[in-house]
Records
---
Amino acid sequence: MIDATRPPITDPTPIFDFYRGSAGTELLTAAVSHFGVFERLARAPRRFEELRAELHLAERPAVVLVTALRAFGLLTPDAEGRLALTPQAREHLVPGAPFDISGYIGLSAKAPGVVELVERLKTNRPAGTEPSQDGAAFIYREGLESAMEKEQSARMLTLSLAGRAKNVAPVLAARYPLPEARVLLDVGGGTGLYAIAWLLRHPTLQAIVWDRPEVLKVATEIAAAHGVAERLKCVPGDMFTDPVPQADVILLSNVLHDWDVPQNRTLIRRCAEALPPGGSLLVHDVFLNDAFDGPLPVALYSAVLFSLTEGRAYSTAEYRSWLREAGLEPGEVVPTLVHCGVLPARK
Ligand SMILES: C[S@@+](CC[C@H](N)C(=O)[O-])C[C@H]1O[C@@H](n2cnc3c(N)ncnc32)[C@H](O)[C@@H]1O
């Protein structure tokens, strides 16, 4: 039974980190054995754009790969802002160097996870979209095969996220209470657990979960189990094309990290336009450092997001610039759990 009223006693964050740790092996092996990153940079430091062009990578995969290598402490900007090897990378990851270990790392070059990540990086396409597969996880837009449109895969994926949401949602509701809010719109709300945690704190609050029809079957069941069905409306729709339901607080929880920059700017603009003056948009997500050099667990999670969806982790500065561009005034991030935090912005 999922219970959105109480936070966990112990912190599940390290367990999420162990689980996401395989992304570290995959990124490092891809950089060493498939893209020759260290060999190239040993010849001369390169600007990000030069390295990206040389590796034939699109912007999104290049950001994911380079951010992780910086978070590992293997690349660093030189005095001119070019990407350069750190002393450790120069000593241990340049083929032929006296203490080189790239052959050892090459033991994993053909491991399925590494081969899969390399394919994702090269194609810049999410997993699951081959004709024989269910479709991409967690994302729906016109022109993309989506697992969220099929009953079984939508239920499985939505319930998988309940694992994180049931831990994090009560913490978000406690650290960022909404005493003034009348209607909360949970965009791409999935299980609805974030909205439910606030409903349980604020007895007069109403909420709307806006998501795909198959996903909302799960949210409807979870709302009924929490006794909040009368205050939680499930509205099916496409957040990119349908009118945004009216609310004075809009939540985007773990949604923007599923999308590329143009879609995020569109989503934030659409939400901002729908808010009344004084209304708030809440971005609940993970945040990269503005320098794109960590934090390491977020850089690793970014690779997971990159492989499964059309997104990645973004920096606070990226979110702030999109919020300002949409006419909102962003505030400070309030940390929640599992490396997440809420960045509020007011209209
Ligand atoms: C990563 S999940 C986040 C779920 C929830 N907010 C959470 O934090 O656990 C992304 C959600 O966005 C929904 N979604 C994706 N594309 C959508 C679209 N075009 N319109 C509405 N919802 C969409 C998915 O069905 C999924 O429930």
---
Amino acid sequence: MTPPSPWAAPHPGAPVDAVVHVPGSKSLTNRWLVLAALADGPCTIRRPLRSRDSERMVDALRGLGCHVDDSSDEVWSVVPAPALTGGVRLDAGQAGTVMRFVPPLAAMADGPVLLDGHETARTRPVGPVLEALRSLGVQVDDGGRGTMPFTVHGRGALDGGEVTIDASASSQFVSALLLAAARFRDGLTLRHHGVGVPSAAHLDMTLQVLEEVGVRTARPDARTWRVEPGPVRAFDRSVEPDLSSAAPFLALAAVTGGRVTVRGWPPSTTQPGAWLPGALERMGARCRTTTEGLEVRGPAPGTLHGVDHDLSDVGELTPVVAALAALADRPGRLGGVAHLRGHETDRLDALVTEITRLGGRAEETEDGLVIDPTPLHGAELQTYHDHRMAMFAAVVGAAVPGVRVVDVATADKTFPGFDVAWERAAATRLEHPGPSR
Ligand SMILES: O=C(O)C1=C[C@@H](OP(=O)(O)O)[C@@H](O)[C@H](O)C1
Ligand SMILES: C=C(OP(=O)(O)O)C(=O)O
């Protein structure tokens, strides 16, 4: 059911005690889908994320001739096309993973592939991926903009070779090329020039999934990746819960002085969410792994510490971390995330605007934000078609009465039913609040 807009963000006013189950990882689901399209046989993806971003990837694969059976919520099967087919128009929606990961597949299709998306996605950068394909001999028509819409004129096959790009605006440029490169005749040597590549966690994830399907990769130096040519082995894989979708729920424990357990937290993972327990502990929360998952216990309300965070490896978590920073006991600096200006919205600008609307103090820096916590008041918050701005607003609303959220349903980019899961968690109460259980 579509939630009302504006949606009244629940304000528990007491410590919560929730056990939550979050949907599968967007980043892993869409990587497995891409690899399935390139695999040497039928593949099985268990516990996938079904959301706007993964639906756009499924549609793209079907458009390229793959058979995807997603009738079950538990298990999807993908039969790769004998040869990827062109002559198709694909819709990336708002999904960065679709607009960046699909062009290298399109380059191996047997005809033109037009990729377009949601109007907010038409300003997001794709240029370095398109330039890389051009330098590998593929014709790409993008009107010189480096954004959607564009047409990749598939050639059936690519020789691969050596390519240099500037991936400072998105790690997804690197992931896109690496994911497809084993199917290039000569594989790929990819070099980055420019300031650093953000989101190291997602790059590790790309190398990890490639290894799991038998693709040989190497990292000769910090700015170079090598993918050897070879088959992508057919696979049967389960998708981890999305730890970035779990982040607001962990924050709910932190800001209410309550307890939240996220079920199925993986013992080891390449997801950026692996960074969260350490960061929450530095802010005064306590985290431990139980038989159920990861449990976070928040400090007494009002005592969450403001600390500085380098988010360069885990930029996706910034909006939730910004909510925590705005509710902390002293200023905190969030750095390493200049590229968030090119996300679903300009997230640095959006966060400053919304924190200011709440009566708080925040400023943009060259590569992030400085947040100086002050007492906040209720307000109607905008979400800018950005799922993570909806999650930011929900976390603030858990600590500040009177927060209303415009278009909380936009969270369904990665978390369908976020509002219901949030209401349920926020309605729980810890029976014995206090420093220990
Ligand atoms: O590869 C991925 O799955 C992602 C990489 C990151 O992109 P950027 O490096 O553009 O931030 C992240 O923010 C995005 O949500 C998902
Ligand atoms: C930046 C994000 O998404 P995308 O995959 O569309 O880049 C995100 O999920 O925070």
---
Amino acid sequence: MTQSSLAREGTITPEMRVVAEKESLDPEIIREGVAQGRIVIPKNVGRTFSVEGIGAGLKTKVNANIGTSGVQGALDIELAKLDVAVRAGAHSVMDLSTGRDLMTTRRAILHHSPVMVGAVPLYAVAADLVDAGQGIEAMTASLLLESIEAQCAEGLDYITVHCGVTRQAVARTHGQDRVAGIVSRGGALLAAWMERNNRENPLLEEFDRLLDIAFRFDVTLSLGDGLRPGAVSDATDSAQIQELLVIGELGRRARARGVQVMIEGPGHMPLNQIAGNVMLQKRICDGAPFYVLGPLTTDIAPGYDHITAAIGGAVAAAAGADFLCYVTPAEHLCLPDMDDVHQGVISTLIAAHSGDIAKGVQGAMDRDRALSVCRKELDWEGMFAAALDQDLPRRRWEENRASEGKTCTMCGKLCAMDAHNSLRRGCPS
Ligand SMILES: C[C@H]1O[C@@H](n2cnc3c(N)ncnc32)[C@H](O)[C@@H]1O
Ligand SMILES: Cc1ncc(COP(=O)(O)O)c(N)n1
Ligand code: MET
Ligand code: SF4
Ligand SMILES: [Zn+2]
């Protein structure tokens, strides 16, 4: 049984109760959301951890991508990144490894992670083929499906499957003067396979088998955006929309089968198109949870793409996106290091929380109020306790501590808060 099928029978599962508790909502609201497919609770039947809900009416969640690449990364470093991500507040990690010995890496991450773990099973198949001196074209549909099954059996809580990369949609990437072509790794691999084998996407052709596997382990399917725009000038083009239509339809098939499903979205996108894209996704995909990468609102800031993504992520979350995939300062440049991971999680949490305030998530502003009350009182410890980053504010303040009084070095004796507090209390300062 899956969370989805149980919800539809009217059962409130322990996982739904945990989510309700974390969100301060009635468990029945969570059950109803899961039953309708507007909320997912990714958790493999074989794993135990403190679950999170993703979807309508819930706090916006944040994922951190980690993992080796074929040319860099080692298991101990990736596990340290997992720690950094979780300590910074990530609700999810994705193992996007494509290096050597992927099973060991994946299993270690699954073993150590106190949060949900996602992956893109196709990467492991592709990496193994490349290791064996072959290309992606040597893959077969059954090799892919068997690997997906094995990886789900290992305990993945959700998997990205780029089922909407159809021949027709790929053809559209050539038609509308796309600048950046296909930037999704999974999307590009599948497009190459399809072209060289003159076949349709195996994830689409074998979708029912995929649903059987997902159902068995209650693995949430994250229908990937293999044709997402990788440049702001490519946003909302016909290839992207065609793929969205396909995965919207597949989402319906998944829900009918009792499989939890979310929809992935872009990418690089001008600020003024973001709310419209969220609206389209919600409408076309029957309110399924929307998992976005960024969106990055400009292409010209490599080195600062945690910022371009946080700007877009805040707008997306405010418009109804449910799950933000982090982008780090390393995006477009190199594999992220531990500091990149930390900065990526914090900037994405800022975007998510800003979105939650705007979308009116229950109690979203409580922590802001708590911090602001302390700020007004010059209660530094209280401020640090309520802060998103638990270390940096204290360090900056202490390193630059004013020599006397409670103020900071910004204004010193001309501290506005101090002056106004004295006025309020009626004592001359
Ligand atoms: C789809 C997203 O995944 C990121 N991405 C791909 N592979 C890795 C990895 N090993 N570690 C961290 N991020 C990764 C890309 O930078 C892009 O932002
Ligand atoms: C939100 C999100 N995160 C990760 C991926 C996988 O990456 P890729 O599509 O490049 O294989 C994705 N498609 N969308
Ligand atoms: C083209 S670089 C890899 C990923 C890219 N940043 C994206 O938006 O999907
Ligand atoms: S340029 Fe770098 S980040 Fe972009 S697709 Fe190629 S390897 Fe990946
Ligand atoms: Zn990009």
